[in-house]
């Protein structure tokens, strides 16, 4: 893929957006292991959704969605809003908005890292919303989610957005549009225009993940899902997109990515080739940025084996040797003073490996609420230890980060701790314990346990069991059962937090 001047009149069939659309319309069967993993990720999304139901961004997004009910007399079904009984339906783009924020708020669901970053589970809320709205079956939904994951992962393998300070949701808009094309059985040209519009409307800067990180970090993927639904609606009505969106002389590659001389190779599946990219993704055991997962596991191991290192009086320096991405995005290489600021937002602290490593070393674990509490961040001994943690790029870890060999690809690092007595403690870890190649890989039992753990005290026991039953029957769900693919919280839980009123 490269830039073409307008005089080339690049054929649609030679454009990346068309190739993506061809993958979406390919009726290839979904392998059993892919179906099983899709069920796992639906459960995973629900787990982190439950834990977010009373967090302010999720409450605000839910309030917005509930002001957009399905129009009276509509022949469609509407979509459910997380936390609310399925008898309440809203338009699908607003359901995608509310449910996407709830999924993303805690930074606690799945991930894929390669040339760029991604949380491919962000495809699920908008695709589920449209499936409910249009009366699709569980099998239809599975096929669509497989497409969403495939397209996002393939784009992330090939195109670095962060190198040009573009937020990673610019890969999510096209993947959602493609997934919806699969779900609805749309023609190739309709999917093509939806992909182009979705990309055009989801390119934004990475300032949402830099400096003083705000709640927009949770909203950005939900926005991409929402506008992808709207793009599909317009394309279905015959409206077209900027063409060629990627390859044009004023397009994305030329002006937002590597420039007029750039070349990219995007590894899409060929005709009849199964969409298996979800199997290359991985979820989080801990509610923190994925590149911190393995280092949290290393810190909790050190907590058990060397409890003396939790006391800042015993530590001179802690240096984490890691990949370029980890050093410059969540490490001291970012040059963000906020990453060492006890008053920083939760969103900033979960992108600070110095903070995360210090707390995990002291506590021997990580909690999605307690580990970010202001009192925890301001504890004097934690602040003292935290300030002694720095990162540095190690080319060998950068190479492993970018490796295409699953056995070599890694997101960890080597930690060197120099004590005040002069001892040097060196430990390393390649992948998180929950990673498929880790010490305790996540399988169905772990996904279910994560859901049960995060639902405790939020959902009644019978609701926990009801949802798990529906989710694990996903491939066989009838259209009239798909509305049950949501979580319903008691009214008093949802009313526990209020946000100011807005326009709607």
Would you kindly provide a brief summary of this structure?
The chain is mainly alpha-helical and 504 residues long. The protein is 44% helix and 5% strand. A hairpin with a 4-residue loop joins strand 3 and strand 4.
- What is the total tally of β strands? 4
Helix run count: 20
Overall morphology:
globular
Write the CATH fold name of the largest domain. 2-methylcitrate dehydratase PrpD
Provide the residue-averaged pLDDT. 96
Q: What order do the strands of the largest sheet run in, or round the barrel if closed?
A: 2-1-3-4
Total tally of structural domains: 2
Helix amount: 40-55%
CATH superfamily of the largest domain: 2-methylcitrate dehydratase PrpD
Order of helices and strands: HHHHHHHHHHHEHHHHHEHEEHHH
Under the CATH scheme, which architecture of the largest domain would be assigned? Answer: Orthogonal Bundle
> Terminal Cα separation, in Å?
43 Å
Radius of gyration: 22 Å
Q: Kindly estimate the percentage of residues that lie in beta strands according to DSSP.
A: 5-15%
Provide the low-confidence segments as ranges.
none
Major sheet attributes: 4 strands, mixed
Structural class given helices, strands, pairing?
A: mainly alpha
For this structure, what is the CATH class of the largest domain?
A: Mainly Alpha
Commentary on this structure:
The chain is mainly α. It folds into 2 domains: 6-280, 2-methylcitrate dehydratase PrpD (Orthogonal Bundle); 290-429, 60s Ribosomal Protein L30, Chain: A (2-Layer Sandwich). Helix content is 44%, strand content 5%. It contains 20 helices and 4 strands. It has helices spanning 16-25, 32-52, 56-66, 92-104, 124-134, 138-158, 172-184, 188-200, 216-236, 252-256, 293-305, 324-330, 346-349, 353-363, 374-377, 380-386, 395-402, 444-455, 461-472, 491-494, and strands at 315-322, 389-393, 413-419, 424-429. Strands 2-1-3-4 form a 4-stranded mixed β-sheet. A hairpin with a 4-residue loop joins β3 (413-419) and β4. The protein is globular and about 70 Å long. 53% of the residues are buried. Keywords: Lyase. It catalyses: (2S,3S)-2-methylcitrate = 2-methyl-cis-aconitate + H2O. Residues 286-474 form the MmgE/PrpD C-terminal domain.
